[in-house]
Amino acid sequence: MSPDPSRELKRAKRDVRVRIRALRDALSDADRTELGARAVGQLLEVPEVVQAGTVMAFWSFGSEVPTAPLIAALHERGTRVALPRIRDGELLPLVHPPDAPTTATAFGAREPSPGAESVDPAEIEVVVTPGLAFDRRGMRVGYGGGFYDRFFRLAASRACRVGLAFSLQLLEDELPAGPGDIPVHVVVTEREVVRTDDLT
């Protein structure tokens, strides 16, 4: 009996998640804060981010790169910030003004409170994208829900997809990927900015 390709892909991605999450979780709080600040600083200098009027960020949780400083810096620039809210299994971008209330999710992140104004995905110029692992092609292994891959299909074709991660999450080997996986255009870590696609 031949192996099921979809099952093999799921297993390969699960192995990556377990391995990279363990490495990321092993960072000390001090290192996470310092390295995260460097990564956010690099992201804020990406030309597409500098020029964007509307950026969808995400509220970090667990051992992710802390994104509160990113959100604050975008607000200071006058950039309109959207944050995702999961509704009916889909990612819904909502406006997040400075000091707006948020609510905690079951998995630890925060999202805009009910009643926040929705954002047309076509208006979003940059999508700051979480993930457990990225490779230099821009492929990513997320948390397994497929929310971002589905959202990428709704966003405008000109929207720049930017992965934000620690350098330990950027792998030299190609990640397992299927036909439904959509790469990011840029991967930003505390060490480097990797452009995977020419958006011009």
Helix percent reads 25-40%
Q: Which spans have pLDDT < 50 for at least 5 consecutive residues? A: none
Supply the CATH superfamily name. NagB/RpiA/CoA transferase-like
Give me the strand/helix succession: HHHEHEEEEEEEHEEEE
In whole angstroms, the N-to-C terminal distance is: 47 Å
Instruction: Tell me the name of the CATH class.
Output: Alpha Beta
Number of domains: 1
In the CATH hierarchy, the third-tier topology is known as Rossmann fold
| Mean of all residue-level pLDDT scores | 91
Strand content: 15-25%
Biggest sheet character: 7 strands, mixed
Radius of gyration: 16 Å
User: Helix/strand/pairing class, anyone?
Assistant: alpha/beta
CATH architecture: 3-Layer(aba) Sandwich
Number of strands: 12
Number of helices: 5
Main sheet: strand order: 3-2-1-6-9-11-12
Shape: globular
Report what the structure shows:
This protein has one domain (5-195): NagB/RpiA/CoA transferase-like (Rossmann fold), CATH 3.40.50.10420. The protein has helices spanning 5-25, 29-44, 47-51, 68-77, 147-154; strands at residues 54-56, 80-87, 90-95, 102-104, 110-112, 126-129, 133-135, 140-141, 160-164, 170-171, 186-188, 193-195. It is globular and about 45 Å long. It has 200 residues and is α/β, with parallel strands linked by helices. The strands form three sheets. A seven-stranded mixed beta sheet has the order 3-2-1-6-9-11-12. It is built from five helices and twelve strands. The relative contact order is 0.18. Helix content is 30%, strand content 22%.
